[in-house]
Specification:
The protein has 390 residues and is α/β, with parallel strands linked by helices. The protein has helices at residues 42-54, 69-76, 99-111, 123-155, 160-163, 170-180, 186-190, 204-207, 214-226, 230-237, 244-254, 264-270, 294-307, 314-326, 328-349, 360-364, 366-379, and strands at 8-12, 17-25, 31-39, 59-63, 81-85, 278-280, 283-286.
Length: 390
């Protein structure tokens, strides 16, 4: 086979070691392979980079194994051309398996140009992605903690949640602090309420009193990271069902440069928001979607479920149309796919969202709609004559 990269290296990346197989031109057209093992501490990864530089290595490939590839990528980025391969795409023929053999196999595939690179964003986008994912994890964890507190109060016959809309609001936190301090006087605890819970006290002045805590600083940091992408976030925010948080997740996970995806179908396939393709003996056996990017998929499906409640919109009509025939889950995935495609073109063409309208599907094929309605009326025992209005 044709040699695409003469000096290349394949990395097998377990948790605590990196097995590297370096291929360089040898005599008789056969490559010379050199295998070394490095640790995963920073100084050892720097030694790996120095070894590759001394050998004139130009391309390095590794498997996307968990998160173990990330430290290596951070160290070697900018020094050599890096390629992250999907582990499912480079599985060897079943048989004996060692880390050294895996590294040699990856290097050989890379040498002949048989590896397809996975999408890896640049460092700034990776950092933004970590922040938005961490924020999502904090929001989910906060919800679980609120539920635990509510369960504890109910077990003690304290119906705070039946009176206060948010038991973690300012008033709720004051009352919880009093309970934790051992205060048992119900009247004194009730006197801690503020805002709308104190109907006879001025509400506005108290509502304007606030404190700037650590979580506000955390959110401000995300806002600063998103600021260079503000134009993209604003464009995506115009899509029905897509709020600012979803738009930020979309930018963090995929970025704003759509040239890395040749078509919108490539993006949908990468995000695993398109039907799966599994065919055997000429028969299609499954159309189930793959797992894909969990953070992106979750954000888009939530946006799709929010879009179903919008009135007079194309996405809302699409959801209702599909849910009636295929069920709510399939409809949510289909609308999430549409949102992703819309986002792709908004960012690629730098346009603004223009809704097609809830009657788009009727306008698209009026004759088919007319025939369907006539058949339904005739099924009810009516004789129907259609006359066009001048």
């Amino acid at each position: 086979m044709e040699v695409v990269h003469a000096r290349c290296c394949g990395l097998d990346v377990p948790k605590d070691t990196v097995v590297a197989c370096l291929l360089t031109p040898g005599s008789g057209g056969r490559p010379t392979a050199e295998v070394r093992t490095f640790g995963t501490l920073t100084d050892e990864l720097l030694a790996l980079g120095d070894w590759l530089a001394e050998a004139g290595c130009t391309h390095v490939a590794m498997e996307s194994t968990g998160v173990y590839w990330k430290p290596i990528w951070n160290v070697l980025e900018g020094q050599v051309a890096l390629l992250l391969a999907n582990a499912q795409h480079i599985k060897r023929v079943p048989g004996r398996k060692t880390d050294v053999q895996d590294a040699e196999w990856i290097a050989d595939l890379l040498r002949h140009g048989l590896l397809t690179a996975s999408f890896v964003p640049d460092r700034a986008q990776r950092e933004l992605r970590e922040l938005t994912r961490y924020r999502l994890a904090l929001v989910r964890e906060r919800s679980r903690e609120v539920q635990r507190v509510q369960k504890t109060l109910e077990g003690a016959n304290i119906k705070l949640g039946s009176v206060a809309t948010d038991i973690m609001g300012k008033s709720g936190r004051e009352i919880l602090a009093g309970l934790a301090a051992g205060r048992a006087d119900a009247a004194a605890l009730a006197d801690l309420a503020q805002g709308q819970l104190r109907k006879k006290l001025p509400e506005l002045e108290r509502a304007l009193v606030g404190r700037f805590g650590a979580h506000q600083r955390f959110l401000v940091e995300i806002a600063e990271r998103v600021r260079p992408c503000e134009d993209a976030v604003t464009r995506l925010d115009g899509i029905p069902g897509v709020g600012r948080t979803t738009a930020e997740v979309r930018v963090a996970e995929i970025g704003t440069d759509m040239t890395r995806f040749p078509t919108d179908a490539h993006l949908a396939s990468w995000a695993a928001l398109c039907p799966g393709h599994h065919e055997s003996a000429g028969k299609r056996t499954s159309g189930k979607t793959r797992k894909g990017n969990r953070a992106l998929r979750t954000a888009l499906v939530e946006a799709a479920k929010a879009a179903r409640r919008t009135r007079g919109t194309y996405l809302g009509a699409q959801y209702q149309r599909l849910a009636a025939r295929r069920g709510p889950n399939t409809a949510a995935i289909a609308v999430a796919h549409s949102i992703l495609i819309i986002a792709y073109h908004l960012l690629k063409d730098r346009g603004t969202y223009d809704d097609l309208g809830a009657d788009f599907f009727d306008r698209r094929d009026q004759d088919a709609l007319e025939r369907r309605l006539v058949r339904r009326l005739e099924a009810l025992g009516n004789k129907v004559t259609v006359e066009k209005v001048a």
